[in-house]
Amino acid sequence: MKMALTFGEKLRYLREEKELNQTELGNKLGMTQRKLSYIECGKCEPNIDDLRAICMFFEISADYLLDIPDNFKYPKK
């Protein structure tokens, strides 16, 4: 069975696809290299502002990073 990638692994993959190091991406996202490193290795989680910046920079949905499946049904209001 295939294991899902963690948030940090997905972020690292996205960063490497853009050929950026942690310092370069951190500068673009407004965070330190250390914080980005901690997020990538799972020592900490991004706050909501970091998540928003990551999604906007990479032009992706937070659903991908948070492992929310495409067929997830949100509760009706």
Give a verbal description of the structure.
This protein has one domain (7-62): 434 Repressor (Amino-terminal Domain). The chain is globular. Helix content is 56%, strand content 0%. The protein is built from 5 helices and no strands. The chain has helices at 7-17, 22-29, 33-41, 48-58, 62-65. The model has no long low-confidence stretch (mean pLDDT 91). α1 (7-17) crosses α3 and α2 (22-29) packs across α3. The chain starts with 6 loop residues before the first helix and ends in a 12-residue tail after the last helix. The chain is mainly alpha-helical.
Helicity, in percent?
55-70%
Q: List segments where confidence is low: pLDDT < 50 over at least 5 consecutive residues.
A: none
Structural class: mainly alpha
- Biggest sheet: strands, sense, closure? none
- Tally of strands: 0
The first-to-last residue Cα distance is 36 Å
Mean pLDDT reading: 91
Q: What is the annotated CATH architecture?
A: Orthogonal Bundle
* Count, helices: 5
Order of helices and strands: HHHHH
Computed Rg: 13 Å
In total, the number of domains comes to: 1
Taken from the alpha-carbon principal axes, the silhouette is: globular
